[in-house]
Specification:
It is a single chain. The chain is of the alpha/beta class and 483 residues long. It has 15 helices and 14 strands. The strands form two sheets. Strands 9-10-11-8-7-6-5-4-3-12-13-14 form a twelve-stranded mixed beta sheet. A two-stranded antiparallel sheet has the order 1-2. Strand 13 and strand 14 form a beta hairpin. Helix 4 crosses helix 13 and helix 5 packs parallel to helix 6. It is globular. It starts with a helix and ends with a helix.
Length: 483
């Protein structure tokens, strides 16, 4: 047993003597020094403590801001934790050659990711699994080394966008790949069939701007026709959404997330480098009218000194419209200007919304503080949900940087050029596009996917925190990943 695992087991035993509740144990472990075992440099980062925020719970007092979870009976996750800590080699394969190598284009100066060879991964996985791996896609295909099952597939449909948001795209733009390098409809259809057979029941289409893809209704209809799929969503900037909504809803679209970072015209131009605020606001209203109640969300990336003075104005939108407002902590991606001095945390957002004690303006319209009540989050939710009593919509916070939710992650991503990314913040990729175009059958693809998921780090791509992600600088710009 490694020294780190020995220390962790000792810590767990001492904590068990102090309390009989799982949440308090995990919370104390998380506050200790080794939440993600950052000092372990092994290829799988060994095992780190399972995130204690699996199921966020109600807060007793509706208008009290609190992160403390209710007590829960039993300790199933802790039992699983102890089992894993006993082994220096947690469940899964080690594919030493599964690593995306970073290079730099001499002409553009842009970082370029070279995905791992799908043939090498397949060969290594075949040797490891032998006859044990079932040929047909199943839930094991989408289970990683931390026993997380992945039921949510995000597909980027293109690299182009009609906006130039500062946090998404580098100032000089990104080099776009030729169309023949991007996934075709039949390739997307084949991969969706494979992933849904393995247990995916939720699919989201992203970009770039997915509405720029002319065959979008056909793609939506194909996904919606899969018997296991319960949700087909789109993440869009909303500029042209109103025009496309009728055909998309008819095709089977169930959810829409609309990116909107400011309610001020001049700031909208500043952040997106384009005009269009009025069109986006109209799209929000149209989506609320055409989609089921609760299925429309506004995504707002909060940055200090830019839109932190508008939080209450956004909250007020949920009063009359059945729209959920989600405030997102700004995340570092390649060349997106992330700066810790402009980072605005979940705790700071809550203070701005609920109190005037900060001494800083929190509303362009002079709105006073709101009282919030805590709601119950879903088992794999990325959002901490709150609500103002009497408002139709909810208020949510995506706390990727300060209180990450990696322990319950159930998401995998396909980039527009067909790379499988098992973690938003990880640099490792494998080309399912190349595998399909070079003759791999569905059994091969299933094995490649399973092998790739065994390399998924426990948290934040193995970088530890936001500054670690920024320092690594080994990922794609957000626009080339898919929002």
């Amino acid at each position: 047993m490694s020294p780190n695992n020995l220390i962790m087991n000792t810590l767990i035993r001492s904590l068990i003597k102090k309390t009989a509740t799982e949440n308090r144990i995990i919370d104390k472990i998380r506050r200790s020094s080794s939440y993600t075992l950052q000092k372990q440099r092994r290829s799988n980062d060994s095992f780190s403590v399972i995130n204690g925020e699996n199921a966020i719970n109600k807060v007793d007092k509706p208008n009290v801001f609190s992160h403390k979870a209710h007590k829960q009976k039993g300790m199933p996750r802790l039992v699983e934790l102890r089992k894993k800590l006993k082994s220096d080699n947690p469940m899964g394969v080690k594919l030493s050659n599964f690593s995306a190598k970073q290079s730099t284009n001499v002409e553009t100066g842009q970082h370029q990711m070279s995905p791992a060879s799908w043939r090498d991964i397949l060969e290594t996985a075949r040797k490891f699994y032998g006859e044990e791996f079932e040929q047909e896609p199943n839930s094991e295909m989408l289970t990683d080394s931390f026993s997380r099952r992945h039921s949510y597939l995000r597909i980027s449909l293109g690299e182009r966008c009609n906006l130039r948001c500062l946090y998404c795209m580098p100032p000089d733009g990104v080099p776009l790949q030729p169309e023949e390098k991007l996934l075709k409809f039949h390739e997307i259809d084949r991969l969706v069939a494979l992933f849904t057979a393995g247990g995916v029941n939720k699919v989201r289409l992203t970009g770039g701007e997915p509405l720029l893809r002319q065959d979008l209704p056909q793609i939506v209809a194909s996904i919606a026709s899969r018997p296991n799929v319960k949700s087909v969503g789109i993440t869009t900037n909303g500029i042209t959404l109103s025009r496309h909504l009728p055909s998309l809803v008819e095709a089977g679209l169930t959810h829409a997330n609309i990116s909107l970072d400011t309610l001020d015209d001049s700031k909208f131009v500043e952040i997106t480098r384009r005009r269009g605020l009025a069109q986006v606001l109209r799209s929000v209203e149209d989506a609320c009218a055409m989609l089921p109640e609760g299925n429309v969300k506004i995504n707002c990336v909060v940055m200090k000194g830019f839109n932190d003075v508008e939080l209450r104005d956004f909250v007020n939108m949920s009063k009359e419209l059945p729209v959920d407002i989600r405030f997102i902590e700004w995340m570092p991606f390649n060349d997106n200007g992330w700066n810790k001095d402009r980072f605005f945390s979940y705790e700071e957002m809550m203070k701005r919304i609920t109190s005037d004690d900060t001494g800083v303006m929190s509303s362009l319209r002079g709105l006073g503080p709101f009282e919030l009540r805590r709601l119950i989050d879903g088992a794999n939710d990325t959002t901490k949900w709150w609500q103002v009593t009497g408002h139709k919509g909810r208020l949510g916070f995506i706390t990727s940087m300060t209180e990450h939710f990696c322990g319950t992650c159930n998401r995998v991503r396909l980039t527009a050029d067909g790379q499988l990314k098992v973690c938003l913040f990880g640099s490792t990729e494998v080309s399912l596009r190349d595998a399909m175009r070079e003759g791999a059958d569905d059994a091969d693809l299933a094995l490649i996917i399973r092998a790739a998921l065994q390399k998924k780090k426990f948290a934040l791509g193995g970088h530890g925190n936001a500054e670690g992600i920024k320092k690594a600088n080994d990922n794609r710009p957000m626009i080339l990943i898919g929002g």
